[in-house]
Amino acid sequence: MKKPQTKVLFISLISAFLCSCSQTETLETDSKSESQQFEIINVTNHDGKPFSTGASRSSSTGKYVDNPGGGVMMQAFYWDVPAGGTWWNTISSKVTAWGNAGIGSIWLPPASKAQNGAFSMGYDPTDYFDFGDFNQNGTTETRFGSKTELVNLITNAHAQNIKVYADIVINHNSGGQSEANPFTGTNTWTNFNGVASGKFKRTYVNFYKNSFGNNDEGSFGGFPDLCHADPYVKDWLWIRADGVGKYYKNTMKFDGWRFDYVKGFGAWVVNAWNANVGGFSVGELWDSNVNVLNDWANNANSSVFDFACYYKMNDAFDGNNLALLNDDMMWKRNPYKAVTFVTNHDTDEIYSKLLAYSYILTHEGYPTIFYRDYEEWLDKNKLNNLIWIHNNKATGTTSILYSDNDEYLARRNGYNGNPGLVVYINNSDVWQERWIQTNWANTQIKDFTGNSTWYPTTQADKWVKIQCPPKGYSIWSINQ
């Protein structure tokens, strides 16, 4: 009697198994079908070359110089770094580790003597040629250190093949002496004839309002507003061989520029600087309007910080609507002039920072990492992994494969033999899985973050199912 019961039970189990397999296959088909309903958005259309910051530094040390994905910049300061003249040495002690991690450039704070002396962050410049070697404004060293320490830092960075960008504040000055100003009918703090370096002396005739007009595009904080229309000012800033720009580049050995508050003057100023001085440049144009950013970048012949991307990331990640990442951004409009960022010394609004870094370090543009995020606030190992992925896998044009409130998947389409990648960002509280179309047929892929242990093989039609952890990301490419 037991044998027939066993046979019936066995048949039932087989039927249940086959039914389960059929249901699973149906679910898999439905899931793939659902993903196929999403129309892939080909975001950029160009030949796939990576972002370029200009000529690569020579590699006398044999260190790695170029990489397939382009560069990564480190903002090597934050607001109110420790005073006492130690900052240049602090950064100098880190450049070897940063170079080994794949950082290609560092952006330093304004390096010259400013009105607030030893306590200034440098954005109130007095003497452009005092790097901490003249006793003025109550101090010899700047907040960050001495000229010798700055030169050593730049030398050490270059030994790691890291470029060094100077923060240039040329909209306004501070720390001048009071003088009678016939254009205003009052006294103004515009007499800089006593600067200790003896270079680029200036008076009220070199500031608005003056014989060239009442004002330019903008002023800042009531500080004296430099008149770039004045031939004397142009000469000292970017034309003469011993002027500010060429001295910084040829004597101090800076490789490029971050222009502060470019809303305060015409884009032609940066254009003229770049044409006469050279080097990489990026402008701080605090505006979320992509048209404004793109117009300025083209007119200035310069890169620009992608504030449009910054604000969209904030809304997408913290507002739980990743579909907002489909919207227009500077890197989509002009990927070779967009510098992306998650945080800087002025603004720190994004809470889901690692998700944001997984976005900018897998997408186009020139990504920037904020010092405190890297050294203090986030997991350095995870950031180093993302830097490695950016440098080695984030190549080619960009296609958005899927997006909704809490899922976003995009593909970098590869360049010059490099296969590119697929990034999956999950802002939900559970693991997610999704079918996506790759550029690889019958090929095993893996998640280079290690967040997923899957090693799936793409189908003949290049489709594959991948997964992503909750409040996390996975980044897939050919397993090689």
TrEMBL record:
<dbReference type="GO" id="GO:0004556">
    <property type="term" value="F:alpha-amylase activity"/>
</dbReference>
<comment type="similarity">
    <text>Belongs to the glycosyl hydrolase 13 family.</text>
</comment>
<keyword id="KW-0378">Hydrolase</keyword>
<keyword id="KW-0479">Metal-binding</keyword>
<dbReference type="GO" id="GO:0005509">
    <property type="term" value="F:calcium ion binding"/>
</dbReference>
<protein>
    <submittedName>
        <fullName>Alpha-amylase</fullName>
    </submittedName>
</protein>
<feature type="binding site">
    <location>
        <position position="406"/>
    </location>
    <ligand>
        <name>Ca(2+) 3</name>
    </ligand>
</feature>
<dbReference type="InterPro" id="IPR006046">
    <property type="entry name" value="Alpha_amylase"/>
</dbReference>
<dbReference type="InterPro" id="IPR017853">
    <property type="entry name" value="GH"/>
</dbReference>
<feature type="active site" description="Nucleophile">
    <location>
        <position position="260"/>
    </location>
</feature>
<dbReference type="GO" id="GO:0005975">
    <property type="term" value="P:carbohydrate metabolic process"/>
</dbReference>
<keyword id="KW-0119">Carbohydrate metabolism</keyword>
<dbReference type="Pfam" id="PF00128">
    <property type="entry name" value="Alpha-amylase"/>
</dbReference>
<keyword id="KW-0326">Glycosidase</keyword>
<dbReference type="InterPro" id="IPR006047">
    <property type="entry name" value="GH13_cat_dom"/>
</dbReference>
<feature type="domain" description="Glycosyl hydrolase family 13 catalytic">
    <location>
        <begin position="71"/>
        <end position="387"/>
    </location>
</feature>
<keyword id="KW-0106">Calcium</keyword>
<feature type="binding site">
    <location>
        <position position="171"/>
    </location>
    <ligand>
        <name>Ca(2+) 1</name>
    </ligand>
</feature>
<dbReference type="InterPro" id="IPR013780">
    <property type="entry name" value="Glyco_hydro_b"/>
</dbReference>
<dbReference type="InterPro" id="IPR015237">
    <property type="entry name" value="Alpha-amylase_C_pro"/>
</dbReference>
<feature type="signal peptide">
    <location>
        <begin position="1"/>
        <end position="24"/>
    </location>
</feature>
<dbReference type="InterPro" id="IPR013776">
    <property type="entry name" value="A-amylase_thermo"/>
</dbReference>
<feature type="active site" description="Proton donor">
    <location>
        <position position="284"/>
    </location>
</feature>
<keyword id="KW-0732">Signal</keyword>
<dbReference type="Pfam" id="PF09154">
    <property type="entry name" value="Alpha-amy_C_pro"/>
</dbReference>
<feature type="binding site">
    <location>
        <position position="230"/>
    </location>
    <ligand>
        <name>Ca(2+) 1</name>
    </ligand>
</feature>
